[in-house]
Amino acid sequence: SYVLTQPPSLSVAPGRTATISCGGDNIGGKSVHWYQHKPSQAPVLVIYHDFRRPSGIPERFSASNSGNTATLTISGAEAGDEADYYCQAWDSSSDHGVFGGGTKLTVL
Amino acid sequence: EVRLVQSGGGVGRPGGSLRLSCVVSGLKFEDHDMSWVRQGPGKGLEWVSYINWNGRIRSYADSVKGRFTISRDNAKKSLFLQMNSLRAEDTAVYYCAREGGYNYGYVSWGQGALVTVSS
């Protein structure tokens, strides 16, 4: 089965840039989406189809996808960005959805 | 405004059954593929099941295949997950999620429903 690998945690100072990686075999050949998930809330789509931002998502959120790594970048991190972030893709070989293990972002 | 309102869940016995529902409003439900995603206690998000717009294409995670059944009623704008042969490891918050289209990801989510499997 297809596996997406994320670092479990990341800390960033307020105002600095956070970069979260998502590794997978030839992930650059897939469409990758990113979700922000805060406790007791439903997940929120922050990036779709590799680098596109849904309406209402700040420009501080950007992403890229190439080779074996997809990356989510949060510029000028704010306290409100503290959350778990998940990458997600569709594995067409098995017809299964796949989530990365999630990265807990701490802003302090 | 698009809304996904979930119901069902609760406590189920090992080997028992539960059914989750998700009613969608604010859009043309039959235009959208849907999925179920869950999060076990202390765990990450896990994709559970997918159904296409007309219900003819369905897929399941290996962990639930043969035990869970996804279905939809487009006339009632509703999505369902029938969970049979429940196991302790099925304990999780279950979310219904709407796909925005090909390569759009899960653009809308339900509020979540807690399923606890315990004797």
Tell me what the structure shows:
The complex is a heterodimer of chains A (108) and B (119). In chain A, 0% of the residues lie in helices and 45% in strands. Chain A is an all-beta fold. In chain A, strands 1, 3, 4, 7, 8 and 9 form a six-stranded mixed β-sheet that branches. In chain A, strands 2-6-5 form a three-stranded antiparallel β-sheet, with no helix packed on it. Chain A is globular and about 40 Å long. The termini of chain A are far apart. The model of chain A has no long low-confidence stretch (mean pLDDT 97). By secondary structure, chain B is mainly β. Helices cover 0% and strands 52% of the residues of chain B. Chain B is built from no helices and eleven strands. Chain B has strands at residues 3-8, 10-12, 18-25, 34-39, 45-51, 58-60, 68-73, 78-83, 92-99, 106-109, 113-117. In chain B, the strands form two sheets. In chain B, strands 2, 4, 5, 6, 9, 10 and 11 form a seven-stranded mixed β-sheet that branches. The model of chain B has no long low-confidence stretch (mean pLDDT 96). Chains A and B meet through strand 3, strand 7 and strand 8 of A and strand 5 and strand 10 of B.
- Mean pLDDT of chain A, nearest integer? 97
Instruction: Give the biggest sheet of chain B.
Output: 7 strands, mixed
Radius of gyration of chain A using CA atoms only: 13 Å
Gyration radius from CA atoms of chain B, angstroms: 13 Å
Low-confidence stretches of chain B: none
The percent range for strand residues of chain A is: over 45%
Backbone shape of chain B: globular
Order of helical and strand elements of chain B: EEEEEEEEEEE
Mean pLDDT of chain B: 96
Distance linking N and C termini of chain B: 40 Å
Number of strands of chain A: 9
Tell me the fraction of residues in β-strands of chain B, as a range: over 45%
Question: What is the share of helical residues of chain B?
Answer: under 10%
Q: What is the β-strand count of chain B?
A: 11
Uncertain runs of chain A: none
